[in-house]
């Protein structure tokens, strides 16, 4: 289940791409399939072990281009162990809401992104997240849980203050918000509740089969109650100069 839209965030074979806070690796695997040189970065060693195993399985199954590479790196998002200007593109999906000092992590993303490079950030949308917090304290107070609720304006303002240019946004996973509201209402760890189980089966059916009815429903629901908001950014090609768009052409911000 991808949150980043790779039509809006195209990957060119040979791109060096960081998946910062990769978790179980869903975006890292897609980046690998698209021919990138992928670094899957996370603090959780157990998650990274699973990602590394899947990378090897994908290579063995011939699912990735011959030239593509993938590796895992463990570390702290506030101190990325990479040189300046290392990556053509960065994905940071559902991670910044977990980091108390988010501005330091954002500054690190800017530092390791190449001039002209692009960044895709996803965080929980304000309204669905606010409802979850209201329904369940356990949802956001568990160790390693969410420490803040972003508005899109706040997320964009923080990254713009560092010098990044906003390239657009969209919402994703509108069908998933009601599931989390159910979970928060019946207990976030109560996976056996009949209503939670039934809705989970619906989500699995949607992910596996992608029927027209759920695709249409999600298209309608995403702008209203999409569980995630996705914002795309570009690092200017040079400080104080116009940025570079995805095609490599200079792009001047509107005034």
Any descriptors?
single chain; 255 residues; alpha/beta; Rossmann fold; seven-stranded mixed beta sheet; two-stranded antiparallel sheet; 9 helices; 9 strands; 39% helix; disordered C terminus; S-adenosylmethionine-dependent methyltransferase activity; Erg6_SMT_methyltransf; transferase; SAM-dependent_MTases_sf
Can you identify the CATH superfamily?
Vaccinia Virus protein VP39
Q: Output the radius of gyration.
A: 18 Å
Give the helix tally: 9
How much helical structure, as a percent, in the residues?
25-40%
The strand line-up of the biggest sheet is 3-2-1-4-5-7-6
Number of self-contained structural domains = 1
CATH class: Alpha Beta
> Which structural class is indicated by helix and strand composition?
alpha/beta
Low-confidence stretches: 240-255
Strand % is 15-25%
Describe it.
With 255 residues, this protein is an alpha/beta fold. It has one domain (16-236): Rossmann fold (3-Layer(aba) Sandwich), CATH 3.40.50. It has helices spanning 26-33, 45-60, 102-112, 126-135, 138-141, 152-161, 176-186, 194-209, 212-225; strands spanning 16-20, 37-42, 69-74, 87-93, 113-124, 165-172, 228-234, 243-244, 250-251. Helix 3 (102-112) links the parallel strand 4 (87-93) and strand 5. Helix 1 (26-33) runs parallel beside helix 2, helix 4 (126-135) runs parallel beside helix 7 (176-186) and helix 7 (176-186) runs antiparallel to helix 8. The model is unreliable at 240-255 (pLDDT under 50). It comes from Thermomonospora curvata (strain ATCC 19995 / DSM 43183 / JCM 3096 / KCTC 9072 / NBRC 15933 / NCIMB 10081 / Henssen B9).
């Amino acid at each position: 289940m991808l949150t980043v839209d790779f039509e809006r965030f195209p990957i060119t074979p040979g791109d060096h791409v960081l998946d910062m806070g990769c978790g179980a690796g869903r975006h890292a695997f897609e980046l690998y399939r698209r021919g990138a040189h992928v670094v899957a970065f996370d603090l959780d060693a157990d998650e990274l072990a699973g990602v590394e195993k899947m990378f090897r399985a994908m290579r063995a199954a011939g699912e990735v281009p011959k030239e593509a590479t993938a590796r895992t790196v463990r570390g702290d998002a506030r101190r990325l162990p990479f040189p300046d200007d290392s990556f053509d593109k960065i994905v940071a999906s559902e991670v910044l809401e977990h980091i108390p000092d988010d501005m330091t992590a954002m500054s690190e993303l800017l530092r390791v992104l190449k001039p002209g490079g692009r960044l895709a950030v996803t965080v929980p949308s304000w309204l669905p997240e606010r409802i979850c917090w209201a329904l369940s304290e356990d949802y956001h107070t568990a160790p390693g849980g969410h420490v803040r609720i972003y508005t899109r304006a706040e997320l964009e303002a923080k990254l713009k203050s560092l010098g990044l240019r906003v390239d657009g946004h969209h919402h994703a996973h509108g069908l998933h918000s009601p599931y989390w509201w159910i979970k928060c209402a019946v207990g976030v760890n109560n996976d056996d509740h009949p209503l939670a189980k039934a809705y989970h089966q619906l989500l699995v059916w949607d992910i596996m089969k992608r029927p027209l009815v759920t695709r249409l429903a999600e298209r309608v629901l995403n702008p209203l109650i999409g569980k995630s908001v996705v914002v795309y950014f570009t690092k200017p090609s040079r400080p104080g100069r116009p940025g570079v768009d995805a095609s490599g052409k200079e792009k001047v911000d509107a005034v």
